[in-house]
Amino acid sequence: MTLSRRAALAAPALALLPGLARAQAGGAAGYPARPVRLVVPFTPAGTTDVAARIISERLQSRLGQPFTVENRPGAGGNVGSDYVAKAEADGYTLLMQTVSSGAINYTLYEGRIPYKPDDLAEVALVTRVPNVIFATPSLPVRTLRELVAYAKANPGKLNFGSSGAGTSLHVTGELLKMEAGVQITHVPFRGAGPMMIDVMAGRIEMGVDNLPSAIGHIRDGRLRALAVTTKTRTPALPDVPTTAEEGFPGVEATGWFGIQAPARTPRPIIERLGTEIDAILKEPGTKAKIADLGGMMPELTPDGGTSPAAFTTFVRAEIRKWGDVVRKSGATVE
User: Using 50, 70 and 90 to split pLDDT, how confident is the model at 26?
Assistant: First the structure.
């Protein structure tokens, strides 16, 4: 076969290559062409909502389309997560996922959860945050040790609130009860905002929340912080000791918040969103906002950032870890 004949036969195939390249990489070409919804599976004013609004504002600015936050609370985050898992996989419905509905609930609601890990695709980890244990200022305790002593002297009389059954906040409270050997009744709320209102009013004696949504109330004295649940103190509240410092090293828990999408979302869109969010998190303004709330950088990649692949590895490890915690603590939901 002559060279010219070979070239003639190869020409049609070669002509297809640009189109194939566009089909493979062009899933993100022109994206987004219309508004994008970022579903928050909890009520407004909680850490999930705060983190979502920080990211959505910057995505809107960078990508030129509205990124609208939509709150769909219920069942410890399961309602909103299931909604996104079953949404059109086109990149226009995203989820601000949490450690609760993205890891803990798979074991806590085993047999009853309407979606599974493979129904969602990881895009980017946004931040990790300490949990904070706090009390209403009228309760006669100023430290976690004093709270435990008070609970032992008054068995069954204390209640602790969380943003919902099955959240990392609920499980953190259960860990404290297990480690300290105390009887404290869990009271689940439909979000952090309503829970903190009741603690500030003294209707609930104590609560557990992610630091970002509670820090303002702690700083102005409406809530009394007793301990953070990380290995080291947080720069956002340097005077608040860790649970380990207070004598309960087993009570260690870090909340996290990240973006997921329906599992069948085109990979180029997932990668583009992941790259954009990674860049946003490295902006000085975004870093300052997250740090002021007590949040930490993702630190999943060598440069301290995030990526879809790294977030996937992280989520799978979290599912295993929290599954063990749920089983050992005996945490349950109605």
Answer: very low
Which residue in the block uniquely carries the two structure tokens 């996290």?
A: 256
Could you tell me which residues come within 8 angstroms of residue 101 by beta carbon, excluding any fewer than 6 positions away?
41, 76, 77, 78, 80, 81, 166
Instruction: Confirm whether pTM is higher than 0.85.
Output: no
Hey, where are the domains in the chain? Answer: 34-128+255-329, 130-228
Q: What is the spatial distance between Cα 268 and Cα 291, in angstroms, rounded to a whole number? A: 30
If you average pLDDT over every residue of the chain, what do you get?
90
Helix (DSSP H) and strand (DSSP E) numbers for the chain: 12, 9
Fold designation for 130-228: D-Maltodextrin-Binding Protein; domain 2 (3.40.190)
Q: What is the CATH number of domain 34-128+255-329?
A: 3.40.190.150
Q: Would you call 199 helix, strand, or coil by DSSP?
A: helix
Domain 34-128+255-329 identical in fold to domain 130-228: yes
Single-letter amino acid, residue 178 = M
